[in-house]
Amino acid sequence: MIHSLFLINHSGDIFLEKHWKSVISRSVCDYFFEAKEKAVDPEDVAPVLQTPHHYLITIYRGKLFFLSVVQTEVPPLFVIEFLHRVADTFQDYFGECSESVIKDNVVTVYELLEEMLDNGVPLATESNVLKELIRPPTILRSVVNTLTGGSNVGNTLPTGQLSNVPWRRAGVKYTNNEAYFDVIEEIDAIVDKSGTTVFAEIQGVIEACVWLTGMPDLTLSFTNPRLLDDVSFHPCVRFQRWESERALSFIPPDGNFTLMNYHVGSQNLVAIPVYVKQSISFFETGPCGRLDITIGPKQTMGKMVEALMVKIHMPKAVLTVNLTATQGSYTYDLPTKVLVWDIGRLNPQKLPNLKGSLSLQSGAPKPEDNPSLNIDLKIQQVAISGLKVNRLDMFGEKYKMFKGVKYVTQAGKFQVRT
Predict the structure, then answer these.
(1) What pTM, to 2 d.p., does this model score?
(2) Distance (Å, rounded) from C-alpha 101 to C-alpha 110?
(3) What per-residue confidence (pLDDT) applies to 270?
(4) What is the spatial distance between Cα 171 and Cα 215, in angstroms, rounded to a whole number?
């Protein structure tokens, strides 16, 4: 199924490769590099590329490309999900998924890839099973392995792999029993020049962090689950219970895991948190133009908008910008023609404004189209769809657990046209 895996950094260098069936030359990645050159942003590279003899399936995580090579037709989402599992495992083992960390733990990385895929077919992808097979690296363990010539690979078969709940290991014990859930929503939206919403949807995820003793059986219910259009679950969730009661019933894995992904596609349910008043114009006479942008809160449910940032891909004819920002700071990168206005926290009493002049190349024609504004933001303690957790119940164990829910809304692909 999956023949090879290449890890490629943001600069386009292949810094790690793993082959399962046969060695495939690095030259197969040239098709990917061509697509990457044509894309404006790394996220815009097509996830599936067809070559004369292979299919290249990629994901982009943490400024790294995970590129898998497949020779036969397979469901692309199956391979994409496996690649995300690989990235999640690296994150869980090493604390972050970056080029430097992977290079520092290259032996453990190869051991993990060997266990996760057997002859090209996914085998062990659950974190608790892998941690019993391959112990996470520590400084002490690294020193001992260096002196004794040992490895992180365990000698016994994981207990969870033989049970009917392979995602949870047996005999888990904690002094403090805790269960925390993060409801994270991303807004994808396109707003036209007049402020009318052309397209809007929400991609949501519920991340769980569960440290509970024994074999607890949890039930998580919502106040308004009917607004969720499309859902996908961790294998621990009992789907029949969701179909009948719209409640999540599950025996949780130990530690961090993604409990559920969901989608809200009804445009009337998607609240746009900010409005933008903008004017970008290029004059017919003279190599110059004007820019004026003001941003204010719209539907924030009384919460503060944080980490607000505006990114604009300017036309190639724009040489320099001379702007004044009433809040935050701006930078203009000449080689990439990207203007970034970092606002930070949005003050409703004094709306941030960026205005000034744009200088164009002399003799260059007036740009045909105005650039779009890409908005990035974050709102704490609110799920913009209105989704709320009602209660969390535990069965099968008699101790009292500490529990909590946190809500975060952030921008996904949020574009304002000018």
Answers:
(1) 0.82
(2) 13
(3) 85
(4) 8
